[in-house]
TrEMBL record, chain A:
Family: Belongs to the CPA3 antiporters (TC 2.A.63) subunit C family.
Name of protein: Na(+)/H(+) antiporter subunit C
One GO location term (cellular component): plasma membrane
Region (Disordered): 187-210
Residues that span the membrane, as ranges: 30-53, 74-95
Coiled-coil segments: none
Automatic annotation (TrEMBL), chain B:
Stretches for region Disordered: 465-487
Acidic residues: bias regions: 465-476
Primary localization: membrane
Domain NADH:quinone oxidoreductase/Mrp antiporter transmembrane: 144-425
MF terms (GO), sorted A to Z: NADH dehydrogenase (ubiquinone) activity
Family named by the database record: Belongs to the CPA3 antiporters (TC 2.A.63) subunit D family.
GO (cellular component) term, any one: plasma membrane
Annotated protein name in UniProt: Na+/H+ antiporter subunit D
Species assigned in the record: Streptomyces reniochalinae
Alphabetized UniProt keyword annotations: Cell membrane, Membrane, Transmembrane, Transmembrane helix
Lineage start: Bacteria, Bacillati, Actinomycetota, Actinomycetes, Kitasatosporales
Length: 210, 566
């Protein structure tokens, strides 16, 4: 078999550009990437048949060494038909997706993200709960000390009222802390996403129409 | 074929039977497209009849292949260097028998589901032809005698599966289908590139001619081809690093489709690994790589399953995990290992399909498969409990059942091998078995015990596909082309109180109707599969000796090669 560098290089370039397009979100771009890779593969298959030669069926009397190998061509024809069918199917999928939601992005797996978030929130909840328990404990100790002091100064009714109020105040603060933490986390994730979008060259190249 | 003499009349008949599992479903699919949406009963009759015929043909082929060696058919009478060859040896025939039995049961189930939903005519008239093309593709991959035909079989199967995955065209299915289609397409491209490599290096793609030529290649080139093919088939088989697409895409499809995908399509990948690694690349060259992949697949998969809260996703992760057992057997590359892997494939196809069908019935009974909102199903529907319990215990590997026997065979083969890695795999396999039991017991506790939860829908409730609906609303309010409907927006909406993943259970994907009584034909099909799974336990002795003979045939390589090049 004689190698043909031009075909191999062409296939390589098609593969590379197709791979770059595959990284995009919109299904249409992914589809273009798949078409490029498909053609790249076909050209690589063609490269396996060696140098160009005469058509075997048209020139049966010629030297077998000068004939083109027909088998890879048969492979390619089959592959082209298959790629055509699948491309048509993906185009309809992209169109259907656009009909549904106004874009054709291929999204992340929501259920996966949910499981991950559940884990991070569970950790955070545990931490806050522990902090809250500690503070409640401290406050109760403090309140007990105060109670003894206040017992000398105030009536029993007032004492009960202040203790409960302070306890509630403490609880409110702990809950507010948790809320703030969650909001901050969400904001941090959002900005991280934005920054990523701005700095990532691929984002500017591939996400131009987003 | 039997001993090399002049082909007798019986051998010629056998040879004519070989292509039938591919041709019959394809012809039936064409016929159905011609009939269109009319004559629904005739449609059902044709589908069931054709699949039953395929089952009978496969059984005959299995007996013939077991008694007289591999059965071969040269398409158009052309010998291998030019023509296409179909080969049915013990492994192919066994896979054909199991796949046709399972597809027949799933067809009955899906007919029941279509009737129970009083489904729209259009999706059903798409479903039947696509399903038959899928069966033809699966049969073609099992029978293919050359790599390019294997590629065509895969494509036939995958193209049909794209249609089945997105049937009804709801938003959630299009989303899941896009991931699935892109990953499958990419692996197909890589497969074609690998075929090109094989052809460039050896000048042939006929599997029977490849062993001699591949053995003559320099070690590096052979290794490159081996790894390229392994990578491609590992994507199809959802072995760990290439498995992320599976739990994302499978659970959104209609129940029978998910069942047949989970049961069969991944095993087609395993079959291709088994065929190429034994016939084309014998020995232990990348056995260690396979074993490491198997270990990771086992552990990562099952830990993923433990974390899930949705029954279908939990089952998808156990599927990835249990792929590890089969890859382990192939990686050992001993007769015992391969025999165990083949047995496990047969057992796992049946059990995994059954469990997904039961998940479909659970959805039908209670309107959801979310474990948090299920409860008390064992009391509400004891039959459903039994139908879930038996295959679940079978999957986990509780002693008398075939799951235990399959795992035992593999673990024993691992201990016989005696390497450090093999012992690590044995430990990993045992841990996975226990964790599978844990995950399934958790699912059982939440869904079948407890008191019925208030979220569970009363019988007769019609559920809308919530995700698609809310997105449609948003589109109506904020106009087309907005960026609010991306994953981010969906996530935010889900964040405060996780919405259950529900609906999308019918072929049309629009709504499902829950019912207190299970539809008859769906139940019959599921019970048949449960019994089929139990048959592996009862007939484990003969089946194990059959898989042992199949493994011997695979390792010897000569029966296959001689049958084709004779």
């Amino acid at each position: 078999m004689t190698g043909t560098l031009a075909l191999v290089c062409c296939g390589g370039v098609l593969f590379a550009s197709g791979t770059a397009l595959l990284m995009a979100r919109p299904l249409t771009r992914i589809l273009l990437g798949i078409v490029l890779i498909g053609n790249g593969v076909n050209i690589l298959v063609l490269a396996t048949s060696g140098a160009a030669g005469r058509a075997a069926l048209l020139y049966p009397e010629s030297d077998p060494g000068r004939m083109a190998d027909p088998l890879p061509q048969a492979f390619i024809l089959t592959a082209i038909v298959i790629t055509l069918a699948v491309t048509a199917f993906l185009v309809t999928m992209a169109y259907r997706s656009w009909q549904h939601s106004g874009n054709d992005d291929v999204p992340d797996d929501i259920e996966d993200i949910r499981v991950v978030r559940r884990a991070t929130y569970a950790e955070e909840r545990e931490r806050l709960r522990a902090a809250y328990r500690k503070r409640r404990h401290e406050y109760r100790a403090l309140a007990r000390g105060e109670e003894e002091r206040e017992a000398r100064e105030h009536s029993a009714y007032q004492r009960l009222g202040t203790a409960r109020d302070r306890y509630r105040e403490m609880r409110r603060r702990a809950r507010a802390d948790a809320r703030v933490f969650r909001a901050r986390q969400a904001r941090a994730e959002e900005t991280a996403e934005e920054i990523e979008g701005e700095d990532d060259p691929w984002q500017t190249i591939l996400g131009a129409d987003r | 074929m039997s001993g090399g003499g002049e082909p007798s009349h019986a051998a010629a008949v056998m040879s004519a039977l070989v292509p039938l599992p591919v041709i019959l479903p394809l012809c039936a699919a064409g016929l159905k497209l011609a009939i269109g949406a009319r004559l629904e009963r005739l449609q059902r009759f044709i589908s069931a009849g054709v699949l039953a015929a395929v089952l009978v043909v496969s059984l005959v082929l299995l007996v013939a292949a077991d008694r007289h060696g591999p059965q071969v058919m040269f398409a158009g009478g052309w010998a291998p260097p030019v023509g296409i060859v179909l080969v049915a040896d013990r492994l192919s025939a066994l896979m054909l028998v199991i796949s046709s039995a399972v597809t027949l049961c799933v067809l009955v189930y899906s007919v029941g589901q279509g009737m129970a939903d009083n489904d729209e005519v259009t999706p059903l008239s798409v479903f039947h032809p696509s399903y038959l093309v899928l069966v033809a593709g699966v049969s073609d991959t099992f029978l293919a005698g050359d790599l390019f035909n294997l590629y065509v079989g895969f494509e036939l199967m995958l193209t049909a599966s794209y249609v089945l995955m997105t049937i009804g065209g709801t938003l959630s299915r299009i989303r899941a289908g896009a991931t699935y289609a892109v990953v499958s397409l990419l692996s197909s491209m890589l497969f074609l590139a690998a075929v090109a490599m094989v052809y460039a290096a050896t000048g042939t793609v006929t599997m029977a001619r490849l062993p001699a030529r591949l053995d003559a290649l320099p070690d590096g080139v052979g290794m490159l081809i081996q790894i390229a093919l392994l990578g491609v088939f590992a994507i199809k088989a959802a072995v760990f690093p290439m498995a992320a697409w599976l739990p994302d895409s499978y659970p959104t499809a209609p129940a029978p489709v998910t069942a047949v995908f989970a049961g069969l399509l991944t095993k087609v990948g395993v079959y291709a690994i088994l065929r190429t690694q034994t016939l084309l690349f014998p020995g232990h060259r990348i056995g260690d790589v396979l074993m490491v992949l198997a270990l990771l697949s086992l552990l990562v998969g099952i830990l993923g399953a433990v974390a899930q809260t949705d029954l279908k996703r939990l089952l998808s992760f156990t599927l990835i995990s249990h792929m590890g057992y089969m890859v382990f057997g192939i990686g050992l590359a001993t007769r015992g290992g391969i025999s165990g892997a083949v047995f496990y494939v047969a057992h796992h196809i049946t059990v995994q399909t059954t469990l997904f069908l039961v998940a479909g019935l659970v959805e039908r009974r209670s309107g959801t498969t979310d474990l948090q909102s299920l409860g008390g199903l064992a009391r509400l529907s004891p039959l459903l409990g039994v139908m879930f319990f038996i295959p679940a215990m079978n999957l986990a590997g509780i002693p008398p059942l075939s799951g235990f026997l399959g795992k035992l065979g593999l673990l024993r083969a691992g201990i016989d091998d005696g390497g450090a890695l093999a012992y690590l795999l044995v430990a990993g396999g045992t841990a996975t078995s226990l964790l599978t039991l844990y995950a399934l017991a958790k699912a059982w506790n939440l869904a079948f015990w407890r008191a019925p939860t208030p979220e569970m829908c009363a019988a007769g409730t019609v559920l809308e596909d919530t995700e698609a609906d809310s997105d449609d609303d948003e589109e109506a309010t904020s106009g087309q082309g907005t960026r609010t409907t991306g994953p981010r927006a969906v996530l935010d909406r889900w964040e405060p109180a996780p919405v259950r993943r529900r609906g999308a259970a019918t072929f049309g994907g629009q709504e499902i109707t829950t019912s207190a009584t299970l539809p008859l034909s769906m139940t019959v099909a599921t019970v048949a599969l449960v019994l089929f799974g139990l048959a592996f336990t009862v007939l484990a002795g003969p089946l194990f000796s059959l898989t042992d003979r199949a493994a011997g045939e695979l390792i010897a390589r000569t029966p296959y090669v001689e049958a084709v090049t004779r």
